[in-house]
C-alpha cells in the first residue's frame, strides 16, 4: 500500500477545499493507497508541505486546488520522480483542463486510482517554474489585481481584466533567441507550456506540455470594437488566426520588458526587466 499525500488549499476557488477529504476517501482505492491530508495555512505553506513530503517518502503527492496550488507543489517535485496528481477546485484550473482532468472530485480521484503518468515539461524563469502559462504585460497586471480581490472565480477575473484594460497599453519587448534579436511591441507576452490560461481561454491552441517547446505568444491591444471577436476566438481556440496575435516557438529565450513583474500560472511575482526562459523537458511526472 502506497503512501499518498493530498495537499489541500482550503481557500481555492470558492473555498470548496475545506471539507473535501471525505469525498476523496469515498472514491479513492484504499486497497492500494494509504491517504494522508494536509491543509495549507498561509502563503508558501504548500511548498513547505511538499518539501516535507519528500523527506517523509510519500510515493504520490496530489495538489488539491487551482493552478497556484499546482505550481507551488510542482516546483518542489520537479526532477524528483514523484508523481503529482491534481484535483482541480480552483478558479481557472488551466493545467487540469489542458490535461482533460475531470473537474469533479469523483472523476479526478478515479484518474489517480489508474495512475497513468505523463512526463511533463516545465518552464524555468529565473530559477522559478511555470507548468501552465506565464506572462508579462497585461495578464501580469490582471494577476496582481485578481490576487487582491476578496472573491474568486471567473466573474472576479473578468472584473480584474476590465479594470486593467483601460490603464494598460502596448509596450516594447526584446526577445533574443539563438543569437537573433526580435524587437516587438505588444499588449502582453505569454510563455505557454499548456494551451490555456484556464476557464477554456486558449492563449496557445495546440500547445503540448511534453514536446520540449515553449510557445511564446505576443498579443497587441485590441480596440473596443475588436474585443468581442477577440474574446470569441480566445474561448473557441482560434486565436492564432487573429491579426493581433503572433507566436514564436523555441526552447530558450532571453526577454527584456519595460516592467519588472510577471505571473507564473496566475501567481504574480517579480522577474526583473530582463530574464531568461527555458524549457526543462520531462521534468515532472503528472497523473492524467
Secondary structure: elements and pairs:
Layout: E1 2-8, H1 21-27, E2 33-39, H2 45-55, E3 60-65, H3 67-77, E4 84-88, H4 94-98, H5 105-114, E5 117-125, E6 128-130, E7 133-137, H6 138-148, H7 154-167, E8 171-177, E9 180-186, E10 188-192, E11 214-219, H8 227-235, E12 245-250, E13 252-256, E14 261-264, E15 267-270, E16 274-287
Parallel strand pairs: 1-2, 1-3, 3-4
Antiparallel strand pairs: 5-6, 5-16, 7-10, 7-14, 8-9, 8-13, 10-11, 11-12, 13-16, 14-15
Number of domains: 2
- Number-wise, the strands total 16
Radius of gyration, in Å, reads 19 Å
If helices are DSSP runs of H or I spanning 4 or more residues, what is the number of helices?
8
The CATH topology of the largest domain is given as Tumour Suppressor Smad4
Sequence stretches where pLDDT stays below 50 over 5 or more residues: none
End-to-end C-alpha gap: 21 Å
Helix percent reads 25-40%
Strand order, main sheet: write it out: 6-5-16-13-8-9
Sheet having the most strands: 6 strands, antiparallel
CATH architecture of the largest domain: Sandwich
Domain DAGKc: 1-129
Keywords: ATP-binding, Kinase, Nucleotide-binding, Transferase
GO molecular function: ATP binding; kinase activity
InterPro entries: ATP-NAD_kinase_N (IPR017438), Diacylglycerol_kinase_cat_dom (IPR001206), Lipid_Phosphate_FormReg (IPR050187), NAD/diacylglycerol_kinase_sf (IPR016064), YegS/DAGK_C (IPR045540)
